[in-house]
Design a protein that fits this description.
The structure is a homodimer. Chain A has helices spanning 12-31, 34-41, 45-51, 55-78, 84-101, 105-115, 117-121, 133-144, 153-169, 171-177, 182-204. Chain A is mainly α. Chain A folds into 2 domains: 9-53, Homeodomain-like (Arc Repressor Mutant, subunit A, Orthogonal Bundle), CATH 1.10.10; 65-204, Orthogonal Bundle (Tetracycline Repressor, domain 2). The longest helix of chain A has 24 residues, at 55-78. Chains A and B meet through α1, α6, α7, α9 and α10 of A and α1, α6, α7, α9 and α10 of B. Chain A binds a DNA duplex through residues 12, 33-35, 43-51, 53-55.
DNA sequence: GTCTATAACTCGATAGAC
DNA sequence: GTCTATCGAGTTATAGAC
């Protein structure tokens, strides 16, 4: 047990990436220190530069990794073969779970993207496709089949994302305004896992007992 | 027209705060440079330290100002004397307008709060009350009067905030996934001003033509 | 109050031994 | 590959003239 900060039997390069991820996620590019990353990895600062040439390149590796695990995960959840209402429940539950296990991830991604959108996104040109096309198509089809009200699929997708992500990135504010401790906050979020799908489905479902429906 | 970066006839102290606000909002505490703030204010760096003793104190002034304009503004909108559905429309419209005019503000507040919740929030103990008590009470009353479905007021308030704020802080992502330019993004947000109230009201309104309602 | 000059320090990066 | 030692740029903060 010479160094318990990282699992044993991993290469120095892996140790660096693991530590860098943790530090960058928590403190952002500007707030992170190469020294701190090295310390956490249990290696020397010079080794960081040996494997990754600069702080910026190390950051790029961490950010690319974040986006390339986040986007496919969202897609995977949204591409599940489920009826629309079930999928909304399934997505909410699993996405919130993912975010709660990586508390710093959403603020990190949002903040760094805001700092430098073009620089960062230019690296994801042809590569991974960001558009949730399967989910969008499913919504469109549900509208067409009169299973749900007339709804803009793009807006509905952002609604779903908003309701899941915002409460987590606003954690400190929510704890303050509702006077919650850590445990109370967790309860609040768990309650949301139920509330969000109900809230969305209530909004878009077609009300069977009324005459003609859909807006306009 | 000796210096057009700031309005004339303002004291140096005011010029500093105005410039500091702009730089800190855009770049955060770690990313901001005292030199850049001084340049933008059109004064010397030493003067920053003359008026505000340190970078941290200057930042605190900017952050306190941000919270102390944001929170009362939210309260003011939520305390308007309007029926619930009208208020939801009124709030959405004006709050999104406010955020669009201060694009960097929400990410700034969220990010810095996440970096240092206890340090920052400890300064707002007795002072301004964060809880939107009037709005919460109004929702509770509407539920009691069977004007809307049984709804947790705390969750509904966060839903409203989520739907307004998230799309703005996720601007770079939304532009990417929907392939929008600046103008297209503005259209998307303007569309939301209509969509959000409809979305929320559809969800909570009691459906008149069906037998008995409310969950449970 | 406002400026110039500079001290004191932090941090990313590199040289060079092993 | 990994380390120690150190350079050099950049940053906050201050001393001191005006």
């Amino acid at each position: 047990m010479k160094n318990s900060k990282n699992p044993p039997d991993v290469t120095a390069e892996q140790k660096i990436l693991i530590s860098a991820r943790e530090i960058f996620h928590k403190k952002g590019f500007e707030g992170a220190r190469m020294q701190e990353i090295a310390d956490k990895a249990g290696i020397n600062k010079a080794l960081l530069h040996y494997y990754y040439r600069s702080k910026e390149k190390l950051f790029d590796a961490v950010f690319a990794e974040a986006l390339k695990t986040l986007i496919p995960k969202v897609k995977e959840l949204l591409d599940a073969e489920l009826p629309l209402f079930d999928k909304i429940k399934y997505f909410t539950d699993n996405y919130i779970k993912l975010l709660m296990e990586n508390m710093y991830l959403p603020v990190f991604v949002i903040y760094e993207l805001f700092q430098n959108p073009e620089k960062i996104l230019s690296k994801f040109t042809e590569k991974s496709n960001f558009t949730p096309s399967v989910f969008i198509a499913q919504i469109r089809k549900s509208v067409k089949n009169k299973e749900i009200k007339k709804t803009d699929p793009r807006q509905l997708f952002i609604n779903l994302m908003s309701l899941c992500i915002y409460p987590i990135i606003a954690k400190p504010l929510i704890m303050k305004i509702y006077d919650l401790n850590e445990q109370g906050f967790n309860r609040f979020i768990n309650q949301r896992k139920k509330e969000i799908p109900e809230f969305i489905i209530n909004s878009i479902k077609i009300n069977k007992n009324s005459s003609s429906n859909g807006k306009k």
